[in-house]
Structure prediction request, 387 residues.
Amino acid sequence: MPNLSLKRGFLYMNKYMRENILNKISKDIEVNESDKYYEFTDIVYDYNKVDVFPLPDKKGMQRFLPLLPVEKIYSEIEVGDTPLQKAMKFGVETGLSNLWIKREDLNPTGCFKDRESVVTISAAKELGHDSVYIVSSGNAALSTAKFAKELGIECKCYVPEKTSQEKQDLILKYGAELELIPGFYEDVFRSVVDRNLPDWNVTSGQNSYRIEGGKTMAYEIYEQLGKVPDIIVIPSGNGGCLAATWKGFTELKKLGKIQKLPKMVCVQITGAAPIKTAFEQNKPYVVLGDIEDSIAEGIIAQESYNSPQAVQSLKESGGYVIEVNDADVVSALKAIIKTEGIIPEPTAAATFAALYKLKEKDALVVAVNTGDGKKMIDEVNHLIKDS
Prediction:
């Protein structure tokens, strides 16, 4: 089985993988390929040789192996196959006639990051890594820690000091080493990348395996609906979930399973929306100046490290970015709990806040509930009671 040398390690290729190439950003965007902070690489496959997809004799994530960069999923923890829930009442609340919610909050650690982590840690095992590290605002760290612990791989997590105590406790519960660093996520990210640590970096924007796991959500949405939604709405910090979902649908089209593609709608925080700025300025990424903090800790951003792929997704899909503020988030948090009985974390509640501002009221819309608020229920209760 051949290996391919990369700037961040080696890729172990399944029989359908072809190469890992510089992401094919639109020709009118100038890309600085040497920038070490951003993800420009993209794993591709020989789609013409994939005869059967998904695999009918496999369950869970294993059925997607022909388009995953690993020989197998080693975890025994069931990831994915999350419900796609029709949201009649919240649809009325937001004026959307055909709204569905992808319940990523029902993954094992209550977050879509489990899709990324189960693939990335399987890759770590195949590549022989006995230690990994990750920079995170919370969810990716605790998810990575859980799957690393299961496979006996050491994990070190670097998070901002302001990360919720509940998430810090879960990271430690899953056996990871935890270091708190002052500042915003970007301060943590850049300081850790600059350390050039010897272990395998599995951070979004630094490891192309994460998008490969994340894209499986697209396969499931198509399976569950039996067709392609018109619009998919996703909250974005780094932009990896947005880019991964778009990639999953484009791969289904390459396999001839679908003819149309969804429009991608990215949700960011007002005044802290680097993907929106990069998209509007026709750049792969931008670095914003000073930003205000937000209760949506997972998407408050000065810069987005998967921005090159996220911008590409918006351009190719005809999508756009919706900005929301903390007041919008709290209002939507209350409404989604009241109407659908779903308790999202504040970051995920930004998705529901954006639905009020969505332009296409009669479209088939899938909103992704990226994280479970019950992990930080004290903060959720505080927000609801104090508003």
User: Anything to note?
Assistant: Residues 310 and 348 are 18 Å apart (CA to CA).
